[in-house]
Design brief:
mainly alpha; 6 helices
Length: about 120
Amino acid sequence: MKDLSNHAFAYVLNSSLLSPEEQEEFEKFRNEYKNKNKRQISRDILRLKSRVSQDVIDQHIQNLDALAQMQGFVTDETRSNIEYVKRLLSQNTRVRPGANSYPPQQQYVSGTSLLLWFLILAAIW
């Protein structure tokens, strides 16, 4: 995984949107995922999206649409990665039989939702 802290736009985006506590969580995620490849990150996106509400997923997709429109900040490669992540989020995935089921989180920036947003950005950059 590319280091998000070295990507100026992703760093500014996170620091302007997240509280200091959420930024600290983001740093923990960055350390945990720094050696994972895009396939592993994609697999975790698919796993985690079942643990957040559809409203949160829809918000993530809307934010990705807005992000893709930012002229001068996103490249064609970034737009392609955004479309890839949107497809992952839009896929109907079934939970494995016997897998732990969790009630979906409704809050946009908390726990699993924050991790999902981190993975989305990691998959893009």
